[in-house]
Amino acid sequence: MASPFSGALQLTDLDDFIGPSQECIKPVKVEKRAGSGVAKIRIEDDGSYFQINQDGGTRRLEKAKVSLNDCLACSGCITSAETVLITQQSHEELKKVLDANKMAAPSQQRLVVVSVSPQSRASLAARFQLNPTDTARKLTSFFKKIGVHFVFDTAFSRHFSLLESQREFVRRFRGQADCRQALPLLASACPGWICYAEKTHGSFILPHISTARSPQQVMGSLVKDFFAQQQHLTPDKIYHVTVMPCYDKKLEASRPDFFNQEHQTRDVDCVLTTGEVFRLLEEEGVSLPDLEPAPLDSLCSGASAEEPSSHRGGGSGGYLEHVFRHAARELFGIHVAEVTYKPLRNKDFQEVTLEKEGQVLLHFAMAYGFRNIQNLVQRLKRGRCPYHYVEVMACPSGCLNGGGQLQAPDRPSRELLQHVERLYGMVRAEAPEDAPGVRELYTHWLQGTDSECAGRLLHTQYHAVEKASTGLGIRW
Amino acid sequence: MKDSLVLLGRVPAHPDSRCWFLAWNPAGTLLASCGGDRRIRIWGTEGDSWICKSVLSEGHQRTVRKVAWSPCGNYLASASFDATTCIWKKNQDDFECVTTLEGHENEVKSVAWAPSGNLLATCSRDKSVWVWEVDEEDEYECVSVLNSHTQDVKHVVWHPSQELLASASYDDTVKLYREEEDDWVCCATLEGHESTVWSLAFDPSGQRLASCSDDRTVRIWRQYLPGNEQGEVHYLSCRGGMQRLLTQWKCICTLSGFHSRTIYDIACLTGALATACGDDAIRVFQEDPNSDPQQPTFSLTAHLHQAHSQDVNCVAWNPKEPGLLASCSDDGEVAFWKYQRPEGL
């Protein structure tokens, strides 16, 4: 079966991130009978085992069974990383949590929160022939119908990712003289890219990657820290699900950096792809267009939630565009109205320049897809990368074309993608600086824009991964 | 039959090691060999014997598995188990490593230059095939990463005149690729072999592709273009109901029962092909002159037992001198042969 993960991750060998362990620790319970002496075992023709007691009597021995679920519950010695990720984070898991909630006493129940990405919403909108606002409202309605308590939009957490990226770039640009590895700064929102970088290029590339968390993981902080406090719950009492356009996001959610040691809970418990939500709708027998739209939830009371909002700059979050315009303003006092992209060797590799009086002030690029990532990394290695900032994404055409998005067998895929892009672009764009609720959260939740809290909750770290050398890791 | 393949000479090309592959330069004057000793040797004639003119030893950390000359003859590419591909520039008898192509996750199994000289293909145990483009300043950039195979990719070869790429894999298939818009796509999968496909060779006209396999057969495949006379027509039913005529490849001949072990390499001439086999033998087959081009038959015209003392890994016809064949083996030796077309054929 072809792997559903991005090309970059397919070549990266996931097993080095979730290493199989050498020993199966699954205890197999066997009834022990009192008695001394050594037992003999006889194998029958049909393969069954019989123990022959000293008195000649025989007893058929039970087979020790280790089920897949047992394997997943332990660290998983024979199960590959892909299987672990896909099975542990699935719509079946969500259903189990919702069912458990129904049976549990109120104090044992978990608050279930779903955060939907704008890309997944656009994909569903295309499939059901709805506009983005109706899709958002009907999805909210659906999730609440099955027992989810709150449904949020990761466009809100994306404000923070963009603001932090903007600030980080300006800081590094100004500090170029002191630090050789300050630039280029590479975007960090794509886990396919991050895991590939950690595994293949390790300590060389990692200092160049932005430490800003992705919108998924900022939402993790928002839900399990801010929102939990608001609801007077400890983070482990919240089950946080995100809906994403790709499978790689499942790997991101399972990173140790996003695991809260104190409360033994992940910032994001389960990532569902757009396709898995579609399957969930089918299994529940629900037709999304037929649902009554519900009002949208909002993380902060100040924000109006009549319709969803988004960001300019394309379907992968708009990092290049936001960092570029902010840097132009902050560093050079230039206001950029429209960002002009110049395609290079292919449509997934484009550049943007800010020039004044013949001088190039800023040189940015977007590099999507593995082949362009390769070329970028090789150029960097040779010291021949002319860019100050690169928006790197593992999937050709970006997140709207992620491996978890809905396919339409009866339509040419390019046409479907264009439709999804149109629907995505229909949503009103907001500048992160002006978005309601953001400033208040910086003040009250994070205690300031460059605070220790902001650093801890909005940023992350990267770790070079060594190639696993255990025999179990080799796939022959 | 034995007389049709005569030994001209042997050289201990990679002593105490295996010789994995051979490549004649386009002029037919030099032979590059590579091996488990991590070295590449360049051989040329001096009078009647073959002597080693250069040793390229600083390029790789592990076995060099394949070498390939650029169409202009000025560059040599080497694919290694150390996961890199080196590009060497020839300066008379000296070779300098001008670039190292990185990116494959593990052992690079093959490298091949496109007829234009601007493109290079590599393949690896990581199951992928990469297409690279070289510019005027000898800078290489990755143009495409193709993940069509489901297992180790053993060999890549370009069509002699078109920008069409073929790959052979441990997944028992042969795949073909071409450029579509701004990316490369797999445009055909040839199924039929029952085990690993080890090598491929286009015949000089490019109309046929020969493949050899661990299943001990050679298969000949023919390309049927849209509108061909044989009426072979294949459509791709696109989404949206559009239909697109495809070129299709059909297996027109299978040579079975001739080889007692895995066939590791195959080399084509017009109407003839040579095979390198794990039973230490070299065989030559000639196409029967009266056979139907759509369903050709081949006869075994040379079968040299014990051509080497171990597995024969590679056979290569000299591009300029008719009948001159080079072979190499796990025994570390390179042998030169003269093939005489038997009377009556």
From TrEMBL, chain A:
SMART domains according to UniProt: Fe_hyd_SSU
GO function terms (MF aspect): 4 iron, 4 sulfur cluster binding; metal ion binding
Coiled coil: none
Domain Iron hydrogenase small subunit stretches: 410-466
Organism superkingdom: Eukaryota
Pfam families membership: Fe_hyd_lg_C (PF02906), Fe_hyd_SSU (PF02256)
Keywords: 4Fe-4S, Iron, Iron-sulfur, Metal-binding
Summary of subunit composition and partner proteins: External component of the CIA complex. In the CIA complex, interacts directly with CIAO1 and MMS19.
Biological role: Component of the cytosolic iron-sulfur protein assembly (CIA) complex, a multiprotein complex that mediates the incorporation of iron-sulfur cluster into extramitochondrial Fe/S proteins. Seems to negatively regulate the level of HIF1A expression, although this effect could be indirect.
Family to which this protein belongs: Belongs to the NARF family.
Descriptive protein name: Cytosolic iron-sulfur assembly component 3
UniProt organism field: Pan troglodytes (Chimpanzee)
UniProtKB/TrEMBL annotation, chain B:
Assembly: Component of the CIA complex. Component of the MMXD complex, which includes CIAO1, ERCC2, FAM96B, MMS19 and SLC25A5. Interacts with WT1. Interacts with FAM96A. Component of the CIA complex. Interacts with CIAO2A and forms a complex with CIAO2B and MMS19; the interactions with CIAO2A and CIAO2B are mutually exclusive. Interacts with CHD1L, ERCC2, IREB2 and POLD1. Component of the MMXD complex, which includes CIAO1, ERCC2, CIAO2B, MMS19 and SLC25A5. Interacts with WT1. Interacts with CIAO3. Interacts (via LYR motif) with HSC20.
GO terms under biological process: chromosome segregation; iron-sulfur cluster assembly; protein maturation
Annotated coiled-coil segments of the chain: none
Protein name (database record): Probable cytosolic iron-sulfur protein assembly protein CIAO1
Organism field: Pan troglodytes
Family per similarity comment: Belongs to the WD repeat CIA1 family.
Entry GO CC: cytosolic [4Fe-4S] assembly targeting complex; MMXD complex
SMART domains from the UniProt entry: WD40
Entry function: Key component of the cytosolic iron-sulfur protein assembly (CIA) complex, a multiprotein complex that mediates the incorporation of iron-sulfur cluster into extramitochondrial Fe/S proteins. As a CIA complex component, interacts specifically with CIAO2A or CIAO2B and MMS19 to assist different branches of iron-sulfur protein assembly, depending of its interactors. The complex CIAO1:CIAO2B:MMS19 binds to and facilitates the assembly of most cytosolic-nuclear Fe/S proteins. CIAO1:CIAO2A specifically matures ACO1 and stabilizes IREB2. Key component of the cytosolic iron-sulfur protein assembly (CIA) complex, a multiprotein complex that mediates the incorporation of iron-sulfur cluster into extramitochondrial Fe/S proteins. Seems to specifically modulate the transactivation activity of WT1. As part of the mitotic spindle-associated MMXD complex it may play a role in chromosome segregation.
Domain of life of the native organism: Eukaryota
